[in-house]
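Private note to self, pasted from the team thread so I don't lose it. Backbone tokens:
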């Protein structure tokens, strides 16, 4: 059978320059003459199968990366078939030239085209939403990909059994001992030839992490703390190591668009990175031993308070589960950024928009953990724990980003949790005074609420000029 011939001169040249090799040095590594390598780099000789295998062995480069026909060229043909630009090229020759001589530019074109298509889809979905009449039709209309991902995370247990099993196997392969960061850096270099470099904020003005596949370097921003640098490195590693496992989880979720799948891939990768830093069984045993004290868990596993709290919301393994915690993250404007939990976030009973939640009080006491018993209008009670989270390290004159993470659990199911110690010994949750909360002011009928921001839709306003209630919006 004839050998497959691949012309990838520019790719070979970039690889050589990235590794600071002369043609003579690279030719010696590959067992060929410098003149033959020169012909290859000028696309006057192909890469044979034997040479591809040698490149893979010496530089740990997958052979598929040199095969532009196998991926880049068909994708370019599809992009240039778009009616918007299809008339710009007379034949496939120019597309092939672009793929061969400037693959980085070709991939940039593909990214732009993908962004254009996704933007068109979002605008189409938004048009459908605006065109519908009535609230019921609006709720039944199309969703944006980010909304779809959030809804999936809210309405299912935040536990991925296959990911947990794959992460445990990966952890045994790493053998991190006391330094997971060093183990991950060694694995990335050994298995994928990837080096890690910390860059100044001026060189990464809009990125936390960026992987350059051509130079095989993972760039991390100096804005990241040491804990966040570990998390971003773990995220990159699990996305490489668990690619097939994550794809299987995505297939089970049946998301409706490629953009939604890409967003969910990141969420599952984030989940896997936490699982790698906090292995399931050791973390659960430690959590039980310290009675779910998040500060102690964060110190023991060398993670942040928010990462330890988020891991608590994933402990839903059958036969080995922790309390059914759920999680909510908000910003100072009340925007709900993330909602997930081991038993699904109780959205209807515990909407997260009520200003009486401890999550809003936490903004006035940054860095302090607040614990409170809260009660919804239907009588359901929850233990709510809240604390501020600081974002990336900010420079002088920059406004730091601060959010609040709220971890909650049904009061009847928080036995053994240190934050429940505020409840008097021997008292039942139903017998204790609790802070009354609601889903949102427009839907809440709680009377005399000093925090009410809007009148309820379900009750008529009070019009008695002889009396005025405690709330800014009196109702009958």
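Design output:
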């Amino acid at each position: 059978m004839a050998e497959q011939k691949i012309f990838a001169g520019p790719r070979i040249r970039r690889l050589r320059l990235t590794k600071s090799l002369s043609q003579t040095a690279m030719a010696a590594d590959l067992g060929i003459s410098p003149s033959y390598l020169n012909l290859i780099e000028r696309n006057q000789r192909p890469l044979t199968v034997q040479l591809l295998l040698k490149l893979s062995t010496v530089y740990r480069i997958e052979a598929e990366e040199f095969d532009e026909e196998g991926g880049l060229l068909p994708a370019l043909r599809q992009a240039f078939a778009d009616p918007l630009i299809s008339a710009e090229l007379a034949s496939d020759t120019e597309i092939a030239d672009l793929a061969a001589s400037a693959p980085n530019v070709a991939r940039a074109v593909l990214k732009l085209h993908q962004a254009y298509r996704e933007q068109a889809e979002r605008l189409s979905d938004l048009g459908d939403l605006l065109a519908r009449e009535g609230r019921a039709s609006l709720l039944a209309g199309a969703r944006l990909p980010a909304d779809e991902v959030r809804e999936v995370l809210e309405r299912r247990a935040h536990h991925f059994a296959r990911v947990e099993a794959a992460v445990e196997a990966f952890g045994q392969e790493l053998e991190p001992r006391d330094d997971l960061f060093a183990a991950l850096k060694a694995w990335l270099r050994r298995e994928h030839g990837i080096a890690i470099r910390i860059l100044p904020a001026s060189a990464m003005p809009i990125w936390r992490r960026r992987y350059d596949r051509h130079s095989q370097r993972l760039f991390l921003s100096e804005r990241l703390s040491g804990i966040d640098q570990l998390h971003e490195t773990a995220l990159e590693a699990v996305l490489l190591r668990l690619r097939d496992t994550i794809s299987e989880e995505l297939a089970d979720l049946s998301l409706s668009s490629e953009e939604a799948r890409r967003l969910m891939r990141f969420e599952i990768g984030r989940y896997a990175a936490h699982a790698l830093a906090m292995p399931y069984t050791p973390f659960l045993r430690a959590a039980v031993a310290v009675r779910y004290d998040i500060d102690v868990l964060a110190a023991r596993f060398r993670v942040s308070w928010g990462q330890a709290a988020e891991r608590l919301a994933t402990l839903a393994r059958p036969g080995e589960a922790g309390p059914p915690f759920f999680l909510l993250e908000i910003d100072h404007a009340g925007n709900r950024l993330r909602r997930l939990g081991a038993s699904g976030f109780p959205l209807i009973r515990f909407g997260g928009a009520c200003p009486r939640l401890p999550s809003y009080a936490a903004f006035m006491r940054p860095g302090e953990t607040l614990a409170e018993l809260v009660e919804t209008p239907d009588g359901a009670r929850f233990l709510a724990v809240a604390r501020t989270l600081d974002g990336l390290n900010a420079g002088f004159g920059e406004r730091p980003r601060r959010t609040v993470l709220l971890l909650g659990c049904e009061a009847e199911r928080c036995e053994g949790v240190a934050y429940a110690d505020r409840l008097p010994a021997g008292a039942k949750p139903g017998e204790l005074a609790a802070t009354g909360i609601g889903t949102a002011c427009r839907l809440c009928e709680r009377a005399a609420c000093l925090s009410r921001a809007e009148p309820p839709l379900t009750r008529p306003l009070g019009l008695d000029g002889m009396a005025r209630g405690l709330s800014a919006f009196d109702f009958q």
